[in-house]
């Protein structure tokens, strides 16, 4: 499968990030087994623990719409480098999409 579509959707989602503190934008796009795409961005809060990562935002949107089977998730950031999921996101990914693929992309794709 060509994952360029979800990488492009993750890049668009990145631009919606609310990051007044770190200025570090992250976007994610998850594709279901049925081919539907859900996107998410990171959303910061002054109370750091209330911050939500892009990966969890995308997955939680999908799950809240009834999705339970996922093929892959793409993650991009404003750093210009590859940005792997944090520990909390890895736990959520392991539970919600244990067989899913994680695609990391940079500004070049």
Please, could you describe this protein's structure?
The chain is an alpha+beta fold and 109 residues long. The chain has three helices and four strands; from the N terminus they run H-E-E-H-E-H-E. It has helices spanning 4-14, 54-64, 87-96, and strands at 26-32, 37-41, 70-77, 101-104. The protein has a four-stranded mixed sheet with strand order 2-1-3-4. Helix 3 (87-96) links the parallel strand 3 and strand 4 (101-104). The longest helix is centred in the first third of the chain and has 11 residues, at 4-14. It is globular. The chain starts with a helix and ends in a 5-residue tail after the last strand.
List keywords for this structure.
four-stranded mixed sheet, 109 residues
In quaternary terms, these chains amount to single chain
Record the strand order, biggest sheet: 2-1-3-4
- In whole angstroms, the N-to-C terminal distance is 15 Å
Note the main sheet: 4 strands, mixed
User: In which range does the helix fraction lie?
Assistant: 25-40%
Radius of gyration: 13 Å
Count of strand segments: 4
Strand content: 15-25%
Count the DSSP helices: 3
What do the pLDDT scores average to?
96
Question: What is the overall shape?
Answer: globular
């Amino acid at each position: 499968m060509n994952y360029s579509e979800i990488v492009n959707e993750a890049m668009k989602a990145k631009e919606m990030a609310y990051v007044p503190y770190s200025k570090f934008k992250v976007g994610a796009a998850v594709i279901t087994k049925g081919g539907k795409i859900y996107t998410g961005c990171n959303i910061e809060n002054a109370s750091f623990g209330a911050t939500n990562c892009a990966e969890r935002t995308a997955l939680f949107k999908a799950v809240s719409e009834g999705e339970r089977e996922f093929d892959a998730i793409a993650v991009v950031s404003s750093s210009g480098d590859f940005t792997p999921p944090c520990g909390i996101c890895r736990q959520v990914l392991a539970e919600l999409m244990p067989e899913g693929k994680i695609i990391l992309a940079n500004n070049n794709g």
